[in-house]
Amino acid sequence: MSPKVSVLMAVHDGEPYVRGALQSVLDQTFTDFELLVVDDASADGTVAIVESFGDERVRLLRNERNVGQVPSLNRGLSEAKGVYVARLDADDACRPTRLARQLEILDAEPRVGLVGTWMEAIDARGRTLGALEKRLDDYVDFVYHTLIMRVYVSHPSAMYRLQPVRELGGYDEATGPAEDKDLWRKLALERYEARIVPERLVLYRLHDQQLSQTRAAYQRQVDGASQDRFIAELAPDAPATAVRMLLAGDPEAWTHDPYAMLSGVERVLDGARKRLSLEKHDAGRLHDLVVRRLLDVSSLRPWHPHTRVVADYAIERLPPPDRGAARRRRKLSLVVAPTVAGARWTASRAAAALPGAAAIRRSPLARRLYGRAMGGG
Q1: Any bridge partners for residue 93, and if so which?
Q2: Are 43 and 164 found together in one domain?
Q3: In this structure, are residues 115 and 160 in contact, taking their beta carbons and an 8 Å threshold?
Q4: Last residue of a domain, one of 266, 292, 318
């Protein structure tokens, strides 16, 4: 009989942490799963560790040569027997109720295709650095956060429906190491919803050797290209790169014509309404969220002439009772923004003196966590 869940792990030379990762899966309160480990031609003791468990739920696939994480994950998807796939990396771990809590949502809500969890960030020695605790309440939330490039479902915490992912062709190997974000965008376009279990059920390890750190610059490049394709699916005639930068708060946005960017945003919102079959209320909510996002982005560099254009545009599209307060915040940002920028610089310098400083400097998650601890929000 096929298991309900395939827990999928791709690993290459994972000896330092893989035992703990595997044990955390085998200790789950929900037991109807297979633990599918794709070993990507490890040269250390990884295979011996996997084989040492002697648990019939563990299934080991071995690549004859090193092909990389994403092809290994796709091999796992082709071999998976479960209805759902739960991801976990070999340097992370999960708490005992993780699978059970995610299954509750997927079983109850057929249009939910993706479920994450809150995550606790730990360092190489297992010490807590902080937590990532975000919510996705409905489809509009998922689309909005996808548009502004906030990915709240982290790959090691993800559980998703296998069949739609197979129909989408699995992971796009050209998008690694941003393959998860690319897949989530495709699920959003297919009108699958996403949720997050509001419990810290995954321990996410930050260390200097992890793939997302060692290939951070390339990851940003392929992630940006994937986001451009997502925007183009919604509005083929919009300037995708400029719109992406504006909504993501990228400083490079201000090198583009603000009027062209805002026209592009309008086309993206109209395209989302049509392409995603949004009801009037949902389209209105998405519009309101994006308008308020534009205000937030314009406040990051309020002295730049282009931000005035964006701020004025956004304020005029707010409900009339909100416009006065928005104008006052805009004026205040001209005074506060330099102070905030200085505080961020000070926090980054202070972070360099902390244990695990390299992980904090290189990881967006760790920087957010450290910034929150320093009072940065």
Answers
A1: 203
A2: yes
A3: yes
A4: 318
**Residue positions counted in the chain:** 377
Backbone φ and ψ for 9, nearest 5 degrees, come out as -135, 125
CA angle 43, 48, 51 (to 5 degrees): 135
**CA geometry: angle 124, 71, 73, nearest 5 deg:** 60
- Cβ atoms 144, 284 nearer than 8 A: no
Which structural domain range is residue 60 located in?
5-214
For the record, the structure tokens of 50 come out as 């996997």
- Dihedral pair phi/psi, residue 153, rounded to 5°: -95, 100
What is the pairing mode between strands 112-122 and 159-161? antiparallel
**How does residue 216 score in pLDDT terms, banded at 50, 70 and 90?**
confident
Does residue 66 share a domain with residue 25?
yes
Both 210 and 239 in one domain: the answer is no
Identify the residue whose tokens are 């930050």: 206
What is the 8-class DSSP label of residue 10? Answer: E
Residue 117, CB-side half-sphere exposure with 13 Å CA sphere: 28
Residues 243 and 145 in one domain: no
Model's pTM, two decimal places? 0.89
Per-residue confidence (pLDDT) for residue 333, from 0 to 100: 84
